[in-house]
Amino acid sequence: MANKNSNLGAAKSAKKDEFYTQLTDIEKELRHYKQHFRDKTVLCNCDDPFESNFFKYFVLNFNRLGLKKLIATCYTGSPIANRQLSIFDVLGVSEETEDKPYKAVVTTVYDKTGDGSVDMFDVAELFKTGENTLTELLGDGDFRSPECLALMDEADIVVTNPPFSLFREYIATLMEHEKKFIIIGHQNAITYKEIFPLLKNNKIWLGNGFQGNVGFFESPYEDIAVSSQHKEGFIRISGVMWFTNLDIKKRHEEMILVKRYDPIIYPKFDNYNAINVNSTSDIPRDYAGLMGVPITFLDKYNPDQFEVAGYTAKDMGVECLKFYQDLEQSLNGEPFVRNMKSARFSPMISVKERPAKTCYRASNAEGYLIKTYGRILIRNKHPEAPKEAN
Ligand SMILES: C[S@@+](CC[C@H](N)C(=O)[O-])C[C@H]1O[C@@H](n2cnc3c(N)ncnc32)[C@H](O)[C@@H]1O
């Protein structure tokens, strides 16, 4: 994979889009989708063929998955392109062409070198002999360029880790071209105005995911790789997830609900018509109304079990019932000071006693207000009957 290069950080540091997925993470996720790949054309459109582990995964599993074709394209701007087993080593072309973006098309994978196994050297040989093709792109390899969009139209399934800074546009392009996909993104994207409606309306969903939603990616960003948890040359990114629109088993697994509704434990928000549930595992099994849950709920979301009504933000499917006037904030018991910056749509719980932790008060609210994180509002489609009061 990518060697460190002193120019890398400077080249892309503003956007921080350069980090590369480990083969084991790709294998762990993609084993859940095996049934979708037979006779399909797969496109990896943010992937230097000789650097990306997505490309490597699909060539090495080409026959096992029964793929029809694999296409990979890379972007001129990618500072890692051609750093390892360069296509130029394979093709023997001049240095001036080194930074050109390429398109790799694979339709056959076999033990070309005759050494008894299939590996990347066979793939290199198959490019040399022309059984698979490696051609220069006309443009810079941007996924939005006409030639890359034509490849997207040819493909059945797009699989990659796209640049996070272009995630909205990337998903919009996939949706516009009606593509099936399995891609990596950040948890923050869940609440983007362009993405949340797709999740809410079951057009896209979360994949199986990274353990604890944390991933280690090879990256040139040495400045980030400072904590003891980091492996040399890797960055730790928390909140990484897989997004897909291919069906997976996990999406049909029912969450076992063990808690019962109790109005003290699950207070109603002051500004939304829903109760607050602090953790997905605490969702009561006998509450029929709207429940505000953390966004990580989507990791467990089964559309047969729950309906997603909206997110606590502007124009995200649910109505905010109250906008606070003369809002003041007290930080951990400090005196109240005016705070107009506090998000207008944040869910608030009203309490009578002043809490020691950070709280708010407003001229149109009773008591004190405790702000929660943004909540996804859901409804249980088959709630149990509430327990009879004695
Ligand atoms: C997060 S990295 C992932 C690379 C690779 N898919 C992997 O997972 O190892 C995103 C890649 O997209 C490339 N990229 C950035 N902008 C792009 C664009 N407009 N079109 C295509 N690729 C782009 C970056 O250069 C970078 O290599």
What features would you describe in this structure?
- With 390 residues, the chain is an alpha+beta fold.
- It has two domains: 6-250, Rossmann fold (3-Layer(aba) Sandwich); 253-390, no CATH class.
- It is 17% helix and 20% strand.
- The strands form five sheets. The protein has an eight-stranded mixed β-sheet, with helices on both faces. The protein has a four-stranded mixed β-sheet with strand order 11-12-19-13.
- Helix 8 (167-176) links the parallel strand 5 and strand 6 (180-186).
- The longest helix has 10 residues, at 167-176.
- 37% of the residues are buried.
Q: Which fold does the CATH topology of the largest domain refer to?
A: Rossmann fold
Q: Tell me how many strands there are.
A: 19
* Gross CATH architecture of the largest domain: 3-Layer(aba) Sandwich
Strand content: 15-25%
Q: Can you tell me the number of structural domains?
A: 2
Mean pLDDT, rounded to whole units?
A: 89
Spatial separation of the terminal alpha carbons = 66 Å
* Helix percentage: 10-25%
Structural class: alpha+beta
Q: pLDDT under 50 segments (min length 5)?
A: 1-13
Q: Compute the gyration radius: what is it?
A: 25 Å
Counting H and I runs of at least 4 residues, what is the number of helices?
9
> What is the N-to-C order of secondary-structure elements (H for helix, E for strand)?
HHEHHEHEHEHEHEHEEEEEEEEEEEEE
- What small molecules accompany the polymer chains? S-adenosylmethionine
Strands of the widest sheet, in order across it, are 4-3-2-1-5-6-10-7
- Name of the level-1 CATH class of the largest domain: Alpha Beta
User: What's the overall geometry?
Assistant: elongated
Please outline the major beta sheet. Answer: 8 strands, mixed
